[in-house]
Amino acid sequence: MFYTILDFPRGQIFLAKSEKGLSFASFIKNQNRLKEIAQYFKKKSIPLELDRKKLLLEERLFQHYFDGKKEDFSALSLDFITGTPYQRKVWLETRRIPFGKTKTYKSLAERLNHKGYRSIGQALSRNPTAIVIPCHRVLSSDGSLGGFSAGLELKEYLLHLEGVSVLS
């Protein structure tokens, strides 16, 4: 698995990909998070190799996104190395939410013919590819932010970057 660490205006993102596609995109809040990520790959017996050249496309797309330009990341193949079939179904449906648009947890559950919209939030909390699977675009039914594993401040930042105003 090849990886790199990208800087963005609010911190850093750890990106990892296999020969099949992007497997991991996670915000690095602090050094402990970096250790957690390394431990995650070690536990799965997946060796990591630092190779920025292998992630040039990803780096370009993320930079484009953080410059505030419309980016849907559809040029990226994904290689899920984690997730249940249900979680993957939720992630793929979430990936269809366009730049600058939002959905609710409830509307995603309805699109998936699933009664429990809280399970949508649980699946999204395990999203392995932040921004590419745009879980930040999923809001509570009342239009408020809901949850976000990287923190609500970052979720609000990403939505504002896309031109979305939300209830705080």
Descriptive report:
The protein folds into two domains: 2-66; 85-161, Arc Repressor Mutant, subunit A (Orthogonal Bundle), CATH 1.10.10. The radius of gyration is 15 Å and the shape is globular. It is built from six helices and six strands. The model has no long low-confidence stretch (mean pLDDT 94). Strand 2 (11-17) and strand 3 form a beta hairpin. The strands form two sheets. Strands 3-2-1-4 form a four-stranded mixed sheet, with helices on both faces. A two-stranded parallel sheet has the order 5-6. By secondary structure, it is an alpha/beta fold.
Quickly name the level 1 CATH class of the largest domain. Answer: Mainly Alpha
Percent helix: 25-40%
Helix-and-strand structural type: alpha/beta
Global shape: globular
How many alpha or pi helices? 6
Tell me the CATH superfamily of the largest domain: Winged helix-like DNA-binding domain superfamily/Winged helix DNA-binding domain
- Looking at the structure, the CATH topology of the largest domain is Arc Repressor Mutant, subunit A
Main sheet makeup: 4 strands, mixed
Please tell me how large the radius of gyration is.
15 Å
CATH architecture of the largest domain: Orthogonal Bundle
Distance between the termini: 38 Å
Beta-strand portion reads 15-25%
Counting DSSP E segments of at least 2 residues, the number of strands comes to 6
Compute the number of structural domains. 2
What is the average of the pLDDT values?
A: 94
Side by side, the strands of the main sheet go 3-2-1-4
Low-confidence sequence ranges: none
- How are helices and strands ordered from N to C? EEEHEHHEHHEH
